[in-house]
Amino acid sequence: MTETNAESIRRQVRQARSRFVAMAATYSLGVFNDNFFKQAASLMAVYAGRQTFQSAIGVAFTLPFLLLAAPAGWLADRFPKRTIVIASKAMELAAMACGAVGIATESWPLVLVMMFLMGAQSTLFSPALNGSIPELYPAEHVLAANSTLKMVTTAAMLAGIILAGVALAYKIPLWGGVPAGRMLVAAGVVAVALAGVLLSLGVPRRPAARPDAKFPWSGPVDTLRTLWNLRTDRLLTVVLLADAFVWAVAVLQVLLVNQLGKEFCLTERGTSYLVVAELGGVAVGGLLARRLASGERWFRALPGAMFVLAGAMLLQGAAPQLPAPLRLLAVWTLLGIAGVAGGLLLVPLEAFFQVRPDPGQKGRIIAAANFAAFLAMMLAAAVSAPMLAHLPPAMGLAVLGAVTLPAALGLLWALNGRELR
User: Fold this and answer.
1) What is the DSSP letter of 203?
2) Is residue 15 pLDDT above 70, yes or no?
3) At what angle do helices 302-316 and 393-415 cross, to 10 degrees?
4) DSSP code of 264?
5) Chain centroid to CA 325
6) Short-list 24, 65, 59, CA closest to 367
7) pLDDT per residue over 301-324, tens digit each?
């Protein structure tokens, strides 16, 4: 009996499951380390009176995505993606060793060096790992795979952010007078990076998608040329702009929420729980995307999600005026709602970058999309310095909501009547 298309898809999904688990675990450990280290460094900076250093951390992490996007896309297309994943995880281990020394000794220059190296590792890792998903699964299952991956990686983000605050709460001096919490962070990032290297060996072997690809010697200029050429695909252009905007908003939100925790006289642990509320919402939004952002008109849910995101942030401006018992509950609730909207936006947007391009162009397009997103995030980190210096954090969130509202209107207009072909 001839196998039907549906049966073929189900069989392919079953066969890919164990490899996907290895990929998800590898990705999640990297996400955990990114967020564990960044949150620990940000909290150390905030509580040491160096609020604007958060912006420097953000710039150091995002700069490699701008400088190395073109080589990262070339590597993902030119060589087997498994090779690039393993090499980038080894690079993560080296970066975390540098970061561990920086955290333990409270050396801010070393922290910045580590953030730059970690950004470079993520730049190389992302196109290879994300480009492997459509090689593993049929196109019909990529959104579901991304939804699962978003849930797992969001859980890793939550764990990283929570544990950063928990670890730093241990102030007992150890060897050389270094607080126990900083030593926990230093040891933790190295151990997790080592586990990530071992798990990356389970990523599936596939031949290179485009072994004749030429190296992009012009670097960022080549990436800008790639982005410019995408203008002929109007839906992809809209998705690219929306994705970059949402990531920029996410960066500003985290920086403002860290400052909001200090304003509410919360400990490092309590401040981490504020960020956790939003990331928990992101996981829920990612799961909702499987139902609300599927099918031919998958993008129909995007403008509504953007409006919800804008509204949740606008209402944050009123939170400090509430009675003390309700203030924190309102902030947690609104951050959770904003997270749901963000997850509902990001999962289908990023799945589209994986299925839209030709196989030989996936690495290049994903790297270019990362370039656009991280350029937006770096600009957001730069804008955050005057915002943190001159605006109360709750008002900063309200301003961010006011900026997101016209973006939602623009997205509604841009997607009106468009269909995925």
Assistant:
1) S
2) no
3) 160
4) T
5) 32
6) 65
7) 889 999 999 999 999 888 778 887
Q: Please give the C-alpha separations between residue 306 and each of 148, 172, 274, 281, 407, in angstroms, as whole numbers.
A: 22, 45, 21, 14, 8
Could you give phi then psi for residue 295, rounded to 5 degrees?
A: 85, -170
Q: How far is CA 293 from CA 257, 315, 389, in A?
A: 29, 26, 39
Are 190 and 33 contacting, i.e. CB atoms less than 8 angstroms apart?
no
How far apart are the C-alpha atoms of 167 and 184, rounded to whole Å? 6
Quote the CA–CA distance of 158 and 337 in Å, as a whole number: 16
* Confidence label for 417 from pLDDT (cuts 50, 70 and 90): low
Task: Identify the pLDDT of residue 57.
Answer: 78
C-alpha gyration radius of the chain:
21
Closest Cα partner for 65 from 384, 373, 347, 365? 373
Does the pLDDT of residue 124 top 50, yes or no? yes
Q: How many residues does the chain have?
A: 421
Tokens 């990032």 — which residue?
189
Q: What is the pLDDT of residue 418?
A: 46
Contact 114, 95 (CB under 8 A): yes
Q: Residue 419's pLDDT band (boundaries 50, 70, 90)? A: very low
What string of H, E and C letters represents the secondary structure of 126-142?
Answer: HHHHHHHHHHHCCHHHH
For the segment 288-296, the average pLDDT, to the nearest whole number, is 76
**Cβ neighbours, 10 Å, residue 152:** 18
**DSSP 8-state class, residue 416:** T
Q: Is the pLDDT of residue 219 over 50?
A: yes
Cα-based torsion angle of the residue sequence 225, 230, 232, 237 in order, rounded to the nearest 10 degrees: -130
Asked if 354 contacts 139 with a C-beta cutoff of 8 angstroms, the reply is no
The three-point CA angle 287-288-290 to 5° equals 75
**What is the overall mean pLDDT for the chain?**
81
Burial class from Cβ neighbours inside 10 Å (0-12, 13-18, 19+) for residue 233 reads middle
Domain 13-201+218-415 has CATH 1.10.287.370: no
How far from 381 is each of 55, 71, 161, 377, CA to CA, in Å?
Answer: 5, 24, 19, 6
DSSP H/E element including 96: helix 81-105
- Spell out the alpha helix ranges (H) of 172-301: 180-199, 220-229, 234-263, 268-292
Q: How far is Cα 119 from Cα 354, in angstroms, rounded to an integer? A: 21
